[in-house]
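retry 2 of 3: previous attempt timed out while embedding pyridoxal-5'-phosphate. Reduced batch size to 1 and resubmitted. Inputs unchanged:
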Amino acid sequence: MIDLRSDTVTKPTPEMRHAMANAEVGDDVYQEDPTVNRLEERAAEVSGKEAAIFVPSGCMGNTIALKMHTVHGQEFICESRAHVLNYELAMAAWFTGCLARPLYADRGVLTWDIIKTGVKAFSPHNSPTALVEIENTHNVAGGTVYTKANIDDICDNAHALKLKVHMDGARVFNASAACGLPVKQIVEKVDSVMFCLSKGLGAPVGSMLAGARDAIDQARLYRKRLGGGMRQAGVLAAAGLIALESSPAKLPLDHENAKRIGAALAELPGVTVTQPETNIVFFDVAGTGRTAAEVVDAFKAEGVLMIAMGPTAIRAVTHFDVSRADCDKAMDIVGRVLGKPVFAISAN
Ligand SMILES: *Cc1c(COP(=O)(O)O)cnc(C)c1O
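retry 2 succeeded.
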């Protein structure tokens, strides 16, 4: 099986497994796990923030961030296809007690011009806006990337109104590889950033939430409430440290593979493809007369896994457990399934 469903399917490397087996550990609820402490320090350095906390999942990192920047009854602004709104089981409402104010943006990339239309000041009729949430890269919009100038502009304007900015940077290292800036610069002005170790970076479990020290101290309490206080978590952090140090350099290859997939799909009859900016390729099969579910099942029968993301939309994600050869093979199969016209090799 060539698994292009998600970069979450990456398995820990032999180096990670070795480090996990040999990790120095302690009780992390007492902040006595030296490996977790090292990971949190490194994550803070890499993101240029005062502190960071290791959380079991990206969802928990986002949940804690929304909670620490808001109080019940406020609103936060996000893009209408945001992960926090659509894929986190209404956690923002359930735990944070806030209302999402979704705004649509082309490519999923919000700008201050769009955001300002949703900002509400305090009045007897309004629940005031407390937070702006931006997703970089934006998953469902196709792995799209914010420019630093745009992020800085959003932050400057938000901060002038005393709003906080949280970045769902599940794939911020992909954004970094695409725009050529270190993560630290990309997130320079945001109040907090969550990033996943368990996606393209390849760790088995875990995400980081980074921000100001006070906020992260508070985050530690919310993590405990949510059942995310882990004990000898150093065995996981050991893999996370390797993911953080050595995986970002591998991401450009994933992006090249995604481009190859995008180019191959563009050749197919009835297929429209959004050319990828990073490691996520979205394409639409409406023109083939088949549904995404049918097409995905047909791919699966031939050994290629992708995800149907709508009636006719399909997502393919590249990652370090699929090689260039795997991607080319997958595209041969996809071409066959979707009835690519066969050009006969010269019969003369
Ligand atoms: C994957 C993802 C998350 C968090 O996912 P977990 O599975 O909880 O680690 C958050 N935001 C985005 C954009 C994601 O793609």
